Amino acid sequence: QVQLVESGGGLVQAGGSLRLSCAASVSRFSIRTASWYRQAPEKQRELVAAITGGGSVNYVDFAKGRFTISRDNAKNTVYLQMNSLKPEDTAVYYCNLQFFNGWGQGTQVTVSA
Question: Where are the beta strands (DSSP E) in the chain?
């Protein structure tokens, strides 16, 4: 059974940083593209960043220059380093894996002004 467990969220002041982690219990993690999404209150879930098994990365515009996605295939874990956080980054952050349709429980990120 595939499980995704996100962690690392919290309350931080604007301009601060957080590092999110997503541990996956899944076979062949290293070949799967991993992504981070977020969902703010009353908004749709949106893509933040993605990383292929080979390490190629893509970011949506609001994440460029502030967020860094990475992965450790030996640990079946994907990370999201978030710097220069803004109040509009407040959301529940979820990870997602290619070939898996489920979601973890997410981790709450709250950025105060």
Answer: 3-7, 10-13, 18-25, 34-39, 46-51, 57-59, 67-72, 77-82, 91-97, 107-112
